[in-house]
Write a structure and sequence with these properties.
The structure holds 2 protein chains of 2 kinds.
Chain A (H helix, E strand, L loop, with lengths): L1 H22 L7 H24 L3 H6 L6 H12 L2 H14 L3 H26 L4 H5 L5 H35 L3 H49 L4 H11 L16 H14 L4 H4 L8 H32 L20 H50 L6 H25 L6 H13 L1 H10 L5 H21 L1 H5 L15 H17 L4 H8 L1 H10 L6
Helix pairs in contact in A: 1-2, 1-9, 2-9, 2-14, 4-9, 4-13, 5-6, 5-13, 5-14, 6-11, 6-13, 6-22, 8-9, 8-14, 8-15, 8-16, 8-18, 9-13, 9-14, 9-15, 10-13, 11-16, 13-14, 14-15, 16-18, 16-20, 17-18, 18-20
Chain B lengths: L28 H34 L1 H5 L11 H39 L1
Helix pairs in contact in B: 1-3
Classes of the chains: A mainly alpha, B mainly alpha.
Chain lengths: 544, 119
Amino acid sequence: MKRVGLCTFLLFVALPAIAAAPAGLKQSHNPIAIGMFLVFVASTLFITRWAARKNNSVSDHYAAGGKITGFQNGWAIAGDYMSAASLLGISALVFSSGYDGLIYSIGFLASWPIILFLIAEPLRNLGRYTLADVVSYRLQQRPIRAFAASSSIVIVLLYLVSQMVGAGKLVELLFGFNYVAAVVIVGVLMVVYVFFGGMLATTWIQIIKAVLLLAGAAFMAFMVLSRFGFSLNALFSEAILAHPKHVAIMSPGGLVADPVSAVSLGLALIFGTAGLPHILMRFFTVGDVKAARKSILYATGIVGIGYALIIIIGFGTIALVATDPQYHTSSGGVIGGVNMVAIHLAHAVGGNVFLGFICAVAFSTILAVVAGLTLAGSSAVSHDLYANVIRKGTATDKEEMRVSRITTLALGILAILLGIAFEKQNIAFIVSLTFSIAASSNFPVLLMSIYWKGLTTRGAVWGGSLGLATAVILTILSPTVWVQVLGHAHAIYPYEYPALFSMLVAFAGIYLFSVTDRSAAGARERSLFDNQLVDCELGTVKQG
Amino acid sequence: VDQTSPAYSSDALNAGTRSVVANPILDDFRFQTLVRNRRRFSWSLTVLMLILYFSFILTLAFAPDMLGRRISADQPCTWGIPVGFGMFAITFALVAVYVVRANTVFDVAASEIKEGVRK
């Protein structure tokens, strides 16, 4: 039955794609890119069919049965984490302002040691499928899971919107489909992967994407350097000549304008990752803490090399794309916008075939990220809200799995609708908002539940909710939304990013509402901390 | 010694079912040493990483010229380039240091404690 279902989906996905291609060509006709895209989609569906046969229990569906190796998980984390924004966004940032592109990539990478030192091992030892498993070890199940599931769903939905809009615009440009068709294709594919293949299919799609992305980036960086005799100085000299800002591209150029915004951005980047549900979920797919550590070692290496290559690619775009008229419109702008410079560079160094390959890589990048997000969102609903809040732990495996799949379907439809609704909106603030929320709600609650004996349910729910609310409100009042989106004259909150204040509010809230909690339940929760410490350190939780 | 870590099945998950009887391992000197050493190590590395990262960010915000200075007068490469790529390398190095120590020291200590309990 599953096979029939898949074939039907294959028709649903492939047919509109083929039908839309000749009709909706907006950009140049690119048969190689479309061909590679179809090859990629076909192979991911093949993987999904293989994974669907092994997807028989809740544990398989959420965590691939805990059978992923550290090496595989390292690649999958890299594939889950490096979105299209990494390849296209950071190279575009280097293209327009040079050195400043490094700031984001270093922040994105610096979060990994923090996750390793403080979060990964306790998470693996105390939890099974979601971060709420860890937080509710000694706190009250229902309020904690309701809170953690809600904040995780907010994060997942926001992140999904940004990915869907990006995907729609990208696929529109790369393959010539119209925007709505592109959004629908992405939405349907991600539902198919997660619905049938669960974590196993998601993992392998992320692994393949990471390998493709790294291989593509390495080839592009190699070809760029080969043009300059493998001398970075020669590349920089050419870039300085080509760029309108000239020598200023070699130094920081005020991307982070004031110290408060700089620190806020840094906090959101470095701690936000440690609160992203789709990232945390990856640590439940490995068998033990040793494998969890190994995954981070590999992931940090892969992501680090990936970003280093993307920086070289960025300088390559200045040297090779900025001055080449074939990549510019008659009015002088970059064809498809500045986010397309890495795609143009692929053409400049590798011709049409490599261009097609990079287009397929960019597309696979989006699919791997949205699949991870969908799985994290559906597990928050089915494992936390349904099985533990509504059914209080009495739901069977089968019922929980069914709710998880229904949620996957609902998330897919919601993502498509939101993607269409936000097509014309300025959503540049959404990614930083997502990281700010994660750093101010999930992360403080998770950290304190592991390390602070005094934490009670009241403190966790109040502190986490206040942190979330502060991050959202300050973002709305900031110049990016209040002035640029809503059109007011002056921003009420003067800084670009909220994390510095919203994290303070979260930690202060957790502390105050915990120490003033005089309830018997609160006392019990504090007394359970010592036993939690044993399970956290030794991994002695008996898994039922 | 009987291990009293609570059962973890989905119906035992709801609050109130976990045992508050203190786990005897808590009195084990080796366990206390492990917790102390591991916490000191992981928090020190965390603080080190945060200091490195925020010095970089604050240098960008307050003294961008420091990173914009050329390494040698006749080449365009600025100090910001090796510092930036060095941040990638240091990040990876810190991760590697932690993994090596956890694999060789902490895992051994943890399994010794668990072995001792089982006897």
